[in-house]
Fold PXA domain-containing protein.
Amino acid sequence: MKAMETVKDLIEEAKLRTVWWALCIFAVSYFLSHTSKSMWMNLPMSILLVCGMRILFNEVEFRRKVKPVRPQTYLSHLEKKQLSVNDSRLSTAPNLQKWKRKIDSPIVEAAIDDFIDKILKDFVVDLWYGDITPDKEFPEQKRAIIMDAIGEVSGRIKEINLVDLLTRDIIDLVGDHLDLFRRNQAAIGVDVMGTLSSEERDERLKHHLMASKELHPALVSPESEYKVLQRLMGGVLTLVLRPREAHCPVVRSVARELLTCLVMQPVMNFASPGCDPNCYLDMQIEAE
């Protein structure tokens, strides 16, 4: 059956090729009839021309000639790469009014402005930057970034519903923590808890919370606390920084570590129940 189909296909292909050859030969003979009236001369010439064109197209590859590219000089390359004087990438003037519109309070604006200026002067300009260069562009850029972040935080605070925050969210949060403490106190024993010191009570509660997987990750170890604060500050900076700074890995990582290590960790240590505020201040003064 397959052999019969193959023979039929060959016959059909032969018919098709014969028709095409006949059409091509007839067309060439027709054009040759304008030069010679002899049909016996035109027909062989047509067959020869068609066969020759067939062989030529099968054996010879035709390509379009590519024009040689004129090599550019180094100076012409530099001219194309040269920045114009008005290029936006050369403009570093910060927008000082955007953050003020978000705060919308002249008294608060003046207080924040004065506070940030003193911080930059004491910890940036006078501490190390002034010894490098008298230029003020870098402090102004840092000031603009800080002000934009403060303005973004201020705008988000204004959107908070204080009634729901004070009467629902905070109460629910405190209630959940009290329920958690009471459950673990009952598991340990009220009488046992009364005989333990403050440090022993904390350790016993920590052990029970770890066993029930209810202990906050920041309380596992100092390294865990640092990692949690680092991730939280990374999320905060992603929201409050301008898109240009937030998408810059260097700015984002430096700002995150400064905020984590120099701001949030000291604040958390100062607010820790096991930390004496006076002792903490004495330690900071001695460190300075």
Summary: The radius of gyration is 42 Å.
